## 1
Amino acid sequence: MHRDHASLSVEHDPSTTLWHLVLIESTISFRNKKNQIVMATSIVNRSRRIFVKVLMDFGVLASLPFVSRPIAARPPEKTRPQADDLMVYAEGDRKGQLIQAADLQINAKPIAALPMEPVSSIIRAGSRLNKVMLVRLDTARLSSKTAKHGADGVLAYSSVCTHTGCDVNRWNDTTSRMVCSCHESEFEVADAARVVKGPAPKPLAMLPLKEVEGQLVVKSGFTRRVGFQQM
Ligand code: FES
């Protein structure tokens, strides 16, 4: 009985009631502040999305250097060969002219060539990694993986040696091998430029070709990374 009385007197203690009121008021205030923060964050996020959209609509975003740099496309003259590129002479009297499949004779010295973008006629001469050597062999001599990337025996190999990057510019018509003049690496043309002699660690990259109405046309990109081992 004494305890019940004491308990009742605590429940009706004015200071306790005041404390409860303060606590309730603080909780409501905190919730209001939290709601305000959530609302403010939402408005900021929405505004930011609208701002970015406006910039994109007006092309402003793409022109900003810190945005455009990572997505900037490589210029066409430096871009690696693309499907449907045409092949042109890279040097000599006919430099820049289109190369026909009929220009290549079986087992004759390879022809230095570059790909050309077919619509703009831009020759991809901005990188030596785009230069290839065109050579024709009897299709009966080609390994299956070589034949499938050729156009009726016409094959295109990167001219950059996989050893230290010299031009592979010599031809042995007895063995039908391409030879690097720097350290004498030899590449088996009939078998996807397999290394048969010298320090080159890897075969030359191959550029798949097709023939369209007598024209040599790139079928797809290089079969492997172009360049030498340190690149
Ligand atoms: S760079 Fe070709 S063999 Fe060394």
## 2
Amino acid sequence: MSLGIAILNSGSSHGGGMYTASGTGLNTLSGIVCISGDTLDCPIHGINPVETGCSTILVVNGKPAVIQGSVANCGAVINSGFANGILTAS
Ligand SMILES: [Zn+2]
């Protein structure tokens, strides 16, 4: 299953990876899901938030999940490393 939902360490078009993942309460096989407001560790621009997300795909803790194609404030596009096998949401 490949839903294109970002997780901790998901990569971006600027390199680096997701630095925080606040989608706790959701069990996946690959890592904690990133939601709107979580930060990207961009090697060019430093740590900055991803404020876009997709509420039609997944909402965790009241915030939309960061997905493939979501854009960080610095312009980096989240493009690799996604959740597999989402098991349960609470
Ligand atoms: Zn950047």
